[in-house]
Amino acid sequence: MSVLLEVDAIDVAYGDFRALHGITLTVAEGETLAVIGANGAGKSTLLKTIAGLLRPSAGQIRFDGHNVSHTPAHRRVREGIALTPEGRRIFASLTVEENLRVGAHGRRPGPWNLQTVYDAFPLLAEKRTRRGAHLSGGEQQATAIGRALMSNPRLLLLDEVSLGLAPVVIADIYKALPAIAEKGTTVLVVEQDLTQALTVADRVQCLLEGRTVLEGAAADVTREQVQAAYFGVETADGREAG
Amino acid sequence: MDWINAVLQGVLLGGQYALLACGLSLIFGVMRIVNLAHGVLAVASAYLALWLVQQTGMPSFLTIVVVIPVLAAVGYAIQRGLFNPALRHGELSPLLVSFGLAVIGANLLQEIFTADSRKISIGDLSTSSVELGGLRLGVFSLLTLVVAVAVIVGLQLYLSHTRIGRAMRATRDDPEAATLMGIDERHMYALATAIAIGTVALAGVFLGMSTQFSPTYGDLVLIFAFEAVIIGGLGSLWGTLLGGLVLGVAQTVGAQIDPAYGVLAGHLVFLVVLLFRPQGLLPKAVVA
After folding, report:
1. Cross-chain Cβ contact B179/A72 below 8 Å
2. Which end of chain B is more exposed for a tag (fewer CB within 10 A), N or C?
3. Residues in a beta bridge with B118
């Protein structure tokens, strides 16, 4: 499998506060990588930087072999990077269907269109004429993912899909992920919910305070290892994780 | 009968105000920018049309095919070159920039065209009228009202049903999320301003055909347009149409009471709306 995304030793800062320190990760075409970590670990910052909303102060982001560190966010979408942002950010005065159509603004060709998105999220088909402001959390999240898919991305970035949602709703939304991966879309998912992250991912990378503390195939890492890394306590092999 | 006539004439006058105001409404609706250069751009459009008629002998109405694209291009350039950079420094900055633009614009017009009052000639059309149940309605005023309604309906359809219109509404709701959809926010804002100033150009040419104008006439245009937008409800184009009509009727009915009270009555209605219904008569249904 060829490498689709390479994040090479990036530093990201908000003013004086450095949110990411030399983060490196690679995602192969077609795989699903879960980045996990507690609040404030820098997960959302990482995704925003890959999507182009934030600029790294050091390091490089390469997409499909070329450097996109200085490409503005709206052009990265056209190259095939789509982010479902933290908080969903649904367009409140637009209907579900209009939200989805705006997702297709860049007119990238691919498998995703209104019909295939409605097939993946049947609840959206029923709510197609409802305005974003009047959607439940789960409907908003499904709209946000559908909207990102409408740009036919090669790389889909999902930020905290489970945040603030009831477990049944989370399970419902995660049910759609295999269908997305099946269409060949590479997925980078950021999660606090370990169970969901470990079920859908091929590989897991754990962040703590802006640094990578654990990395491995999802099938190989144990819950204990992840939990240890997550909270920054000593890991099984005796390495100080924090 | 006099009162019915006053109301009808007010509706016709309101058509002109609505046409003048919809560009202001659109710019505010999409970008939350109050464009104080609105009036001077309308007057500049009238001067450009007048100049074209004088220099090329072009028929008055044909000038809009030149004036609208030229002013739309000016609008695009103003947004990209001035308002977009100003927006980065907060919401007040574009207001100040547009104020500066209004002052510079009015002085430039004075420099080029002198302070004399002018009018674009439309021949017999300015005096011809039709009779309707004993009331006389000016043909040109009727035409202005029809154009105003057509422009507002057209803008609504454009915003509701086209790819760019949807992108504009999305950008208004959440500019950062819009960039994540592949929308270039700065370009989208500039397109919105180009369309808005295009409507201002049309309104300006119609204004120049209906009344005497001078370089400082833009101040009055800005006030009337602003009042129409506020009465109707900020950010709502249908509201702006209604606001224009209400303002027009208030002015003509006020003038019916006493010819000196026309403009004053308009201001009073504006103040009453501002006091008792500050969101306007037809505010936007969903607040983003």
Report:
1. yes
2. N
3. B213
Number of H helices, E strands in chain B: 12, 2
pLDDT by residue (tens digit) across A42-71? 889 999 999 999 999 999 999 999 999 999
Residues of A in contact with B175 (CB under 8 A): none
Q: Is the pLDDT of residue A195 over 90?
A: no
- pLDDT tens figures, B7-27: 999 999 999 999 999 999 999
Contact B181 A105 (CB under 8 A): yes
Q: Judge whether B181 is closer than 8 Å to chain A, CB to CB.
A: yes
Locate A175 and state its tokens: 């049910």
**Other beta carbons within 10 Å of B123:** 9
Q: Rounded to whole angstroms, how far apart are CA atoms B185 and A78?
A: 14
Distance CA A56, CA A47 (A): 12
For A74, the closest of B172, B183, B286 (CB atoms) is B183
Q: Answer yes or no: are the C-beta atoms of A82 and A148 closer than 8 Å.
A: yes
The model's pTM is 0.91
Alpha-carbon Rg for chain A in angstroms: 17
Average pLDDT value over all residues in chain B: 95
d(CA B175, CA A120): 27
Tokens for B147, please give them.
Answer: 């154009």
* pLDDT at site B285: 52
- Chain A residues within 8 A (CB-CB) of chain B? 51-53, 72-75, 77-78, 82-83, 85, 89-94, 98-99, 101-103, 105-106, 131-133, 147-148, 151
**End-to-end alpha carbon distance in chain B:** 45
Q: With beta carbons under 8 A apart, name residues in chain B contacting A151.
A: 181-182
Contact predicate A61/A6, CB 8 Å: yes
Check residue A207 and give its pLDDT: 84
